[in-house]
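Dissemination and training. As part of the outreach component of the grant, students in the summer workshop were shown how a complex can be specified as a set of sequence lines and then modelled as a single object. The example used during the hands-on session is reproduced here so that future cohorts can follow it. Participants entered these lines:
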Amino acid sequence: MSEEKKIVKKVVEKAEKAADPVAATIDPASQQMIRRAQELNVETCFDRAVKMKPCNIGSTGICCKNCSMGPCRLTLPKDYDEATDHTTRKGICGASANTVAARNFIRMIAGGAAAHSDHGRGVAEVFLSAARKETDAYRIKDTRKLLEIAPALDVPIQVEVDGKMVDRDIDEIAVEVGEKAIEEWGKPHGEVLYAKRAPKARYELWKKMGVVPRNIDREIVEIMHRTHIGVDQDYKNLMKQGTRAAIADGWGGSMLATDLQDVLFGTPYPLSSEANLGVLREDHVNLVIHGHEPILSEMIVVVAQRPEIVEYAKSKGAKGIQLSGICCTANELLQRHGVPLCGTFLQQELAIITGAVDAMVVDIQCIMQNVANVANCFHTKLITTHPIARMEQENVVHIEFDEHHALEDAEKIVRLAIDNYPNRRNEVMIPKQKSPIVAGFGVESIEYHLGGTFRGSYYTLNDNIINGRIRGIGGVVGCNNARTRHNEGHVEIVKELIKNDVIVLTTGCNAIACAMAGLLTPESAKVYCGPGLAEVCETVGIPPVLHVGSCVDNSRILLAAAEVVKAGGLGNDISDVPVAGSAPEWMSEKAISIGHYFVASGVYTVFGVTLPVTGAPKFQRYLFEEFEKLYGGMWDLEVDPIAHAHKMIAHIDKKRKALGIDKARERVLMDMADRQRLEA
Ligand code: SF4
Ligand code: MSK
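and obtained this result:
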């Protein structure tokens, strides 16, 4: 080949292997940064997704590597026949495609439940040291919430003295709550106490099905045992354990993480902030916090506000310190302090490409190893902080965080960022895009806004669902995935839902995507909602999409659903309520665990992109159809965003019909039409 041809070939190959920014993301700020990265020859996940195609066997759930006789690839025959289910399709040990797919699926549940629950355990340990006053940095902040959760952990809040009930000492309650909470991970007897926070009918169904978790760790360990070669080889029995572990996550580890964080750092209430890469400030020290645990980042917020630290930043030539966040640490700090959102999971490399990030501090989960390589091309200091989450690259600084010297560790990190401000070596290019948002909703604030003080419950929300102004509730959550256009599924699905009067509760990266798209403001109701939902949002002054927190805070959606049941008029169980779940761009094992605890709680749940079950159609049918008969909730997969939203709406309508409230909705629509005619 001539030299010239070789050069042409190289250029073509390079172009083919680089992402097209517009095809990669709907967000103009991200498109600008992908372009800049390519100009600077810095590779990002968007380029890697173009270069490396997914394996068709693994992605459909039918590759087993649980022993060294494999990996066994149980390819789906082109002439797949439902009647025979091709039982000759086997691994070396004879494992069927259903067994392999079910084992893989529940191992994902185990991975996700372990991640959430280990996060929860970390919070519980800090909580207990705070309750025992072993640390100055943390204090019990929200005593009202402490008193609310104590009874659910069998901790009495009153004692009998001389025949009268008197309030117990709050410090004593806090210590006992901490001790009881920690026991939930490994107690030898009984069951996870929070399971009883589900509606009575749901708890009884779980009891009947034998899926009430015993303790959090045990259910995860048992998955690893059962999926070892030669143990559980019945996909239905495997899913039973997957269900028990998912409940241990949603109604156990995740719910405890949320509650204890609220008690330690304060229960979120609505506040305003901004979202997208445009929150970075050229003339400030930019410290980006990324990961999931708020334990360290809460301390960073405290330290960064100290006058002497701000003065120190000024002494280095900066006008101040700008904190912002990526992924769920961002959501945690947003909902309690209004710290702005810098971006979603897929924007972590792009934030550094602005050249403006002086330090990125990471804790656990969803941190791409490549952020270290990108940081190496800029002046950015990448700081790992958690003993279980380190990186091999030499440019990574590790400052191990310990709750016993939390403020000192946080100060070290903030000073490192400040010291690095004068070292910026690339031209700073911060996209201008940022959107105003209102975030910080939760079970309590929804009750306040949509319940009213008179009833003190979800009465008004239920009333609006019954009269049809609100058609139903959508829980739309989850990640970004480089295999699909960044944020497109998230935003299109949510817009379609609110257009059809479905109020949306959101967490995780979906919440950040909605924030960037301007859907988290009360004003967006007028622009995007159907008439019924718009009227409710305008009356009470809330956005049609309620940001309820981080990934572990999906437990808030479960509790909100339980409150809806409690308020009455919409059935006896979550499976009766017009509600549907969705993860349009999921990618993590945590998303599978979340999806499955939604399903096990009675919620129809649709995922986008792909699901690792499609290579085993019989197992898939079990999850997509038969599960509804068992638990009232089931899985579904829909890649097209509009069809995805309409599947959710169809389910919501099915539930409305079963409750006999479908007619009420028609009446409201006629009222609206009449009103429009009158106005015309
Ligand atoms: Fe193959 Fe069975 Fe080993 Fe899996 S457990 S890799 S199916 S032999
Ligand atoms: S951060 S788990 S990418 S939502 Fe919670 Fe986003 Fe998914 Fe991580």
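The first strand starts at residue 63 and ends at 64. Students were then asked to discuss how this feature might be tested experimentally.
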